[in-house]
Amino acid sequence: MIALNNTRYHAAISVLSEMLVFAAPSDATMSRFFRSNPNLGGQDRHMIAECVYGILRNKIRLEWVLGGPANARSLLTAYLVVVERRNLRECGGDWFPDTEKDNFALCKSKKLAEAPVYVRADLPEWVVNDLIAGGMNDADILALGAGLQGAAALDLRVNSLKAKREQVAAELLDVGGVETTPTPYSPWGLRVTGKPAINKYRAFTEGRVEVQDEGSQLLGLLTGAKRGQMVVDFCAGAGGKTLLLGAMMHSSGRLYAFDVSEKRLNNFKPRLARSGLSNVSAQLISSENDQKIKRLVGKIDSVLVDAPCSGMGTVRRNPDLKFRQNPASVLELNAMQTSILASASRLVKSAGRLVYATCSFLPSENEAIVEAFLAANPDFKLLDAPELLKAEQVEIALTGPYFKLSPHLHQADAFFAAVMQRD
Ligand SMILES: C[S@@+](CC[C@H](N)C(=O)[O-])C[C@H]1O[C@@H](n2cnc3c(N)ncnc32)[C@H](O)[C@@H]1O
């Protein structure tokens, strides 16, 4: 139970009211709020953050219980009843206003078990409709929804160019008391106990580890990138996956990192410097059809398209994404995804690989894009992702030919990848 008091109760309502506009990512709103309220101590901040993120995670259920869209104060009341299961007696003290007592009683009277599936899964109705259109049943939707409510772990990837996993684990423990365990599937992964600031350790500043979720690490294996190859990371962003591909290539061959965002590519520079890689060419492109990529047509062994997406698979870390995305924004993304995949595919040489990935679980951003691409490009065929991982000694329970991770099954963010090969 969150230890509320007058200050924390009012601060939580204040910051949540700002967040509910969804004009900015909620973590940015939270940081700004704490900066402008320096009187709040460490414990206060912790409790306020717990309370506010707990409300965002459960907002759909809380609003159903309240009977419709609600303000921050009512949501907090519903949170105390529905999530914390408090009695009115436990909301004693000066902080719980008499005016909220009716809301309290209303929330107590509602039975969540009677709510529609989208409410019980705490996913927007349009998201659940997308899942149903993709063939998911109610039980799986509820399991996915429950998994997305959980806490996300902090995963590290050991840079195989510079160190071994056991060495880095020992170093982190020795230097900072940071406890880690090997990730269940990735050969380079370490799962950190708690959330220590890894960037202050030399293992990080000297490029022996990077922060990277396990799903992204496994994606590297699916590209099959090897020593001496020509590889393209088409949507490289700040280069998280580029660094992994470069390490898999032993810093040999040529690795092109393209992106339309100068800011993201600039953020990649210090990471690249730390990594020790010397085979990377990072290039800003104006669009997926930029002239710069023309000279690479038909020459690339493996092309990764880590497409711009709704990010819905990361709602454990960013619960506000559920409310910052909508059917129209996803439709816009679908058009981009289709166009980027089509353009990037031109670079793949005969028998080369094309990997399409998103950090989303929406079938409209995943299977639908890949199926349409394959239908329009019969020279590409779908490979079996679980088989490819098995060949890399990764045994992971997956159904179907795609690489689909879910938090409730794989203790990772939801993630999707399809591996294709040009005939
Ligand atoms: C999911 S993020 C990539 C994250 C990155 N691969 C990583 O591991 O850190 C998608 C990226 O696609 C980029 N992007 C958007 N439109 C693009 C386009 N038309 N061509 C290439 N990249 C694009 C965005 O700037 C963004 O950096």
Automatic annotation (TrEMBL):
S-adenosyl-L-methionine binds at residues 259, 306. GO terms for molecular function: methyltransferase activity. Coiled coil: none annotated. The active site is at residue 359. Residues 144-423 form the SAM-dependent MTase RsmB/NOP-type domain. InterPro entries: MeTrfase_RsmB-F_NOP2_cat, MeTrfase_RsmB-F_NOP2_dom, RCMT, SAM-dependent_MTases_sf. Pfam families: Methyltr_RsmB-F. Keywords: Methyltransferase, RNA-binding, S-adenosyl-L-methionine, Transferase. It comes from the Bacteria. Belongs to the class I-like SAM-binding methyltransferase superfamily. RsmB/NOP family. This is RsmB/NOP family class I SAM-dependent RNA methyltransferase.
